[in-house]
Design a protein that fits this description.
The protein has 505 residues and is an alpha/beta fold. Helix content is 41%, strand content 12%. The protein folds into two domains: 176 residues, Aspartate Aminotransferase, domain 1 (Alpha-Beta Complex), CATH 3.90.1150.170; 247 residues, Aspartate Aminotransferase, domain 2, CATH 3.40.640. A seven-stranded mixed sheet has the order 1-7-6-5-4-2-3, sandwiched between helices. A four-stranded antiparallel sheet has the order 8-9-11-10. The chain binds pyridoxal-5'-phosphate. The site of pyridoxal-5'-phosphate has 15 residues, from helix 6.
């Protein structure tokens, strides 16, 4: 006969009394529901009236101070935590949801994505693996991305934080292809020849970081010069590979960029694909924001050759407008992808029945085991808006960039600093009188103008350096950014520029 189960609640050694069970669910679901609705309404109000707010504002010391207190031991009401959020967090975000945000390369998110995030949080799926519909949703996104990029059915994909992580993973896949699976045990120093990788000088810093993190070191990454359109010079790429081969290195990885971070340039992808094929190198594309331009009939032709990549890293959270974070790595050959990451361990054993079924799992395609349900907000965004609408928004950001470029060219006190390939415009303020006398350093002036803009709450562009000159960099990514937002930014640049110059005269 079975032994009767002992009741742990009766076990005095555990120090628990009869009715000791605690959970984190509310005692009064009715009151919790009312509070929940209030919180949802507040966020809908926030999004509906975003335009009436400053893009960004400095954080008051009183708000910072509320987050420098000791660890709470006693409970506090949800309503008071929410009030703190409304007072001290919500008004002091980075501003990237706002139409006036044009800094760096950041997406605006969408109301649909926000709701999807709530649903995903309610379900709280751990999508590392197992037989569950959320993993099936992620596979739907993989299938859709194969379709978008004309990749074969054998291609695999996986959600990660962002393109920085996806680029690192691509380097690791290419490393395993170049050196064989034993590299996972022996390490990269077991290679007969030192491996070298190639990218353009315009590439994002995370490509070099990927070489660092993968153990090759940033010196093993050759930075190929770019042409006047800021695209990789493919003759220089061929020459660099040749030189390295002659010197006894083993070229293994070429990273093209589709939408460069500084100016939005797209490398000659077809030519790089040819070179990678001839040189038996892995052809990776950093398409962080640019790759999803495939949804826009106006941008897609510029991306010709992307379908030939061995892997593409990109972000749904930039031009795709999906809530942060939603990076993605697409790999042409799923076997090679898995070879770099899958590991047999007993506690992750796969079965043919039950929750432990459904192999392969997302954890076989990257370093993450526990992971959230990023696929849901992406699925909702694609499902509800469709690629036509999202593509139109991508085209719209490019049209706005063209509009801004025209305005800059027409203004005698503004100077365009780089060609406008997509949605990024780099320019600077210059005052003819002032720069002639040298009374003001133009780099300092433009840096100050950008800080003035930020603090005014009118617009948030960022800065970069183009050919040694500090540029005001406007990257139009957000679906909310319209001509009015561009005009507001431009007028403010002219005003702050004039004010600073007349003060200096
Ligand atoms: C944004 C960006 C990255 C980095 O992507 P994260 O999602 O921020 O990690 C890499 N490359 C380019 C071209 C980018 O624009």
């Amino acid at each position: 006969m079975d032994k009767p189960l002992t009741d742990p609640q009766m076990d005095p050694s555990l120090g628990r009394s009869q009715d000791a069970h605690q959970s984190l669910d509310p005692e009064d679901w009715g009151a919790f529901r009312a509070q929940s609705h209030q919180m949802l309404d507040d966020m809908l109000d926030f999004l509906e009236h975003l335009r009436d707010r400053p893009v960004w504002q400095p954080i008051p010391q009183s708000s910072r101070a509320k987050f420098q207190v000791s660890l709470p031991q006693q409970p506090q009401s949800l309503a008071s935590a929410h009030q703190t959020f409304m007072q001290d967090i919500l008004p002091y975000g980075p501003g990237n949801s706002h139409p006036g945000f044009m800094g760096w390369v950041q997406g605006g998110g969408s109301p649909v994505g926000m709701l999807a995030e709530m649903l995903a949080a309610g379900l709280n799926a751990n999508t590392g693996g197992r037989d569950q519909m959320p993993v099936e949703v992620e596979r739907q996104i993989v299938r859709w991305m194969r379709e978008l990029f004309c990749f074969p059915d054998s291609a695999s994909g996986v959600f990660v934080t962002g393109t920085s992580m996806a680029n690192l993973m691509a380097v690791l896949v290419a490393r395993t292809v170049a050196l064989g699976k034993t590299v996972r045990k022996e390490g990269v120093w077991s290679a007969e020849k030192q491996l070298t990788a190639y990218t353009s000088v315009e590439a994002h810093g995370c490509v070099a970081q990927a070489m660092d993190l993968a153990g090759f070191g940033t010196a093993a990454l050759r930075r190929i010069p770019s042409n006047e359109a800021f695209q990789m010079d493919t003759d220089a790429l061929r020459a660099a590979i040749q030189t390295d081969r002659e010197a006894g290195f083993q070229p293994f990885f070429i990273a093209g960029t589709a939408g460069s971070v500084d100016v939005g340039a797209i490398d000659p992808l077809n030519e790089i694909a040819d070179i990678a094929a001839q040189e038996s190198c892995w052809f990776h594309i950093d398409g962080a924001f640019g790759a999803l331009g495939m949804m826009s009939p106006h941008v897609a032709p510029l991306l010709k050759g992307i379908e030939r990549a061995d892997s593409i890293a990109f972000d749904f959270h930039k031009w795709g407008q999906v809530q942060y974070d939603a990076g993605f790595l697409l790999v042409r050959d799923s076997t090679l992808h898995m070879d770099a990451f899958a590991a047999p361990v007993a506690y992750l054993r796969r079965e043919t029945r039950g929750v432990a079924g459904g192999s392969p799992w997302p954890c076989d395609f990257g370093p993450d085991l526990s992971r959230g349900f990023r696929a849901l907000k992406t699925w909702f965004t694609l499902q509800v808006y469709g690629t036509e609408k999202l593509g139109t928004i991508i085209s719209q950001t490019c049209h706005l960039a063209k509009y801004l470029k025209q305005q800059v060219i027409q203004q005698p006190s503004l100077e365009l600093l780089a060609p406008v390939a997509l949605n990024v415009v780099c320019f600077r303020y210059r005052d003819a009188e002032i720069s002639d006398t040298g009374a003001i350093n133009l780099d300092d002036l433009n840096r100050d103008i950008v800080a003035d803009l930020h603090e005014s709450g009118l617009a948030v562009p960022s800065t970069t350096t183009i050919k040694g000159q500090l540029a005001i960099r406007v990257a139009i990514v957000n679906h909310r950014t319209d001509q009015r937002a561009i005009d507001t930014m431009l007028h403010a640049v002219l005003q702050f520029g004039q004010a600073r110059c007349s003060a200096a005269k």
